[in-house]
Design goal:
The termini are far apart. This protein folds into two domains: 41-78; 83-247, Metallo-beta-lactamase, Chain A. The model is unreliable at 1-9 and 11-29 (pLDDT under 50). Strand 11 (233-240) and strand 12 form a beta hairpin. It is an alpha/beta fold. It contains six helices and twelve strands. Bound molecules: zinc ion (ZN).
Length: 268
């Protein structure tokens, strides 16, 4: 059953309500006068309380971050060595959302490879624009790090490279010159900002020719073309003694990309 629309009992009553509302913007029928800033009275106590609230909010945000870091360090102190003939895959970021400091570490025997090293773009702390993956774990395996392999040139995959590379230098593999140049640009930017002179070895593998590179007897890598939202993105294939690991990288499958380079579905 359709209910009849509510009508004011008395049309005059409705008109009165409208007039009452209109009168709110006027005082005695006169337009309300603007208050000059010089005439405003500042409540000093209220301003101080507001300032204190801002600091408390900032402190809480920082504390939340510290809790994560403490937890992380505790977890690292109890890391067991990798057993023989086992592949260990460790994620130092990238599993909780878009723009979240992508970094994956693969270890087998005495070798380790790092896949991507990006900024966390979602950090919301006063005076902090981004964060990098916690490298405490890398410290425990630094003697094994043989290479970085980068899936594509987005900042959440490459931007932390200069900071991580500075502590743990190794060659950087990319699937395209575009990605390699993005990496170079990031190093130049950080060198300029921090007065460093980091010049990593950058190696581009031809993903369209399915170029494979034997990093060590434990790791052989190959990039495959995949479409995403910037040019020349790749999926990384890593062959290990116990099997093949595929890190898809970011992708957005597009059969007709603007650059006319579709995903290498056949190879996949
Ligand atoms: Zn991306």
């Amino acid at each position: 059953m359709v209910k009849p629309r509510m009508q004011p009992k008395n049309p005059e009553e409705k008109r009165e309500k409208v007039n009452k509302y209109q009168n709110n913007s006027k005082q005695n029928g006169q337009p309300q006068q603007r208050v000059q800033i010089s005439q405003m009275t500042t409540n000093r106590g209220e301003a101080m309380r507001a300032g204190r609230r801002n600091f408390e909010t900032a402190d809480k945000a920082v504390d939340r971050w510290n809790v994560f870091e403490k937890h992380h360090e505790h977890a690292v102190s109890s890391v067991l060595p990798v057993a023989n003939n086992r592949l260990r895959v460790t994620f130092l970021g990238g599993l909780e959302g878009i723009g979240e400091k992508n970094m994956m570490v693969l270890e087998y025997g005495d070798d380790a490879i790092i896949v991507d090293a990006g900024f966390d773009l979602s950090v919301d702390l006063p005076g902090v624009n981004y964060a990098i993956p916690a490298t405490t774990y890398l410290e425990t395996i630094k003697h094994k790090i043989r290479a970085y392999a980068i899936t594509h040139g987005h900042m959440d995959h490459i931007a932390a490279l200069p900071y991580v590379y500075e502590q743990y230098p190794a060659p950087i593999f990319c699937a395209s010159h575009f990605c390699s140049e993005m990496v170079e640009k990031q190093f130049m930017s950080i060198n300029e900002e921090r007065g460093t002179d980091l010049q990593p070895e950058r190696i581009v593998l031809n993903m369209d020719d399915h170029e494979r590179y034997v990093l060590t007897p434990n790791f052989t890598i190959e990039f495959l073309r995949i479409t995403h939202s910037i040019p020349d993105c790749s999926t990384l294939v890593i062959d290990t003694p116990i099997g093949r690991v595929v890190n898809t990288g970011d992708f957005r499958l597009d059969p007709e990309p603007l650059d006319h380079h579709p995903s290498d579905v056949t190879r996949l």
